């Protein structure tokens, strides 16, 4: 074997499928957004809590896609004591575990929020990632629907705090008890009808996508799509379909509440659900939240099976262009509901809970569409250039840099090959540095520094291509005593900020 063949293969740098590296602008946008959300949650009296990324798989339990195959749907591994652990699938199941484990120390109602990454071991696709951030708020230990009403109001306030104006969002509210009551009223109650109920729920969930006619087909014989693929229907009769469509088609809840109460009369939970929706409607209206902000809407299903009462969804109503170039409503950016059975699994006693979750990445996309993020762009660092490489000069450049930083100004001293001054200018340009500090031997002898406003310089003289013209033009360049360096830089940065504000 030749020496060439023995040479080890260079390691290939590759990102795992379904994951992304996040760049500075995105990280700052998320920080800006989560700070605004956190402020609203704190104002409502919620406190932060943080659970680890891993949980024992059995703690995530039946809420996994398939608990018999621990790697299906979630990322799992075996601990050194052979216990299965999984990366969390959402933020709700870990909270339930935390509350149950610390139940005797926790003050109920326990009102808490948390933001963090969750992981899905699913096939990635356009806009679908295996790691994404959620921001949740939950109230554990409050059985009354005022806790659910407050969640809806907090969601509405959060949308507005993020700059989404009224009319561009709505919080839609339904109740699983009413939905279960309607299904029971049409003969789909009982454990033996669980499969049929799920088919009906999936059909209702397609209302936005296929409209009433499409849902009617899915509730009945089935539906063929444009590509010829056939989806088997729930096989309901005309009368059953009519009752389901009446329920999900309610637009004016106040006018239809009486008919709905009649439809679910005699069912185990339906009447209770209607009462709860009426109470939520009364509470939010009394607090000044009209139907243009919080609307009772029976078409809201929410897919997760652990909801037991009110369910809600935050929907953005402005149009965006999708991948096919079509104008579509942006849609849901978060939702939640009451999940009274989740903590109880660990406790052997009922523990009421309600909460909601915001999809951070999806909401960030929406805010970018509205031009509501990144308005306060971070200014790049001031660049202290290096004209001489001797120890004394370098010490001076470092002191200038530190003086700027100590005054709260972003600054960096050039750390590449200082001998090619043109490289420093290119670097400043690529970094979009607002100001450059220059001190050669002549300036040092006089105890002054040259301060160049790079933004103004670029505007006045176009692209300056070489070092000589850059230094000789003295465009937007001033000379100040070393002691006035910080004050002058601050003055230039403030003027640039005013220009940006005017241009914006």
Automatic annotation (TrEMBL):
It is found in: Cytoplasm. Its EC number is 6.1.1.21. L-histidine binds at residues 90-92, 120, 134, 138, 302, 306-307. Gene3D superfamilies: Anticodon-binding domain, Bira Bifunctional Protein, Domain 2. One of its GO terms (cellular component) is cytoplasm. Residues 31-381 form the Aminoacyl-transfer RNA synthetases class-II family profile domain. Coiled coil: none annotated. InterPro entries: aa-tRNA-synth_II, aa-tRNA-synth_II/BPL/LPL, Anticodon-bd, Anticodon-bd_dom_sf, His-tRNA-ligase, HisRS-like_core, HisRS/HisZ, HisRS_anticodon. One of its GO terms (molecular function) is histidine-tRNA ligase activity. Its main location: cytoplasm. One of its GO terms (biological process) is histidyl-tRNA aminoacylation. It is an enzyme of class 6 (ligase). It catalyses: tRNA(His) + L-histidine + ATP = L-histidyl-tRNA(His) + AMP + diphosphate + H(+). Keywords: Aminoacyl-tRNA synthetase, ATP-binding, Cytoplasm, Ligase, Nucleotide-binding, Protein biosynthesis. Homodimer. Belongs to the class-II aminoacyl-tRNA synthetase family. This is Histidine--tRNA ligase. It comes from Shinella sumterensis. The gene is hisS.
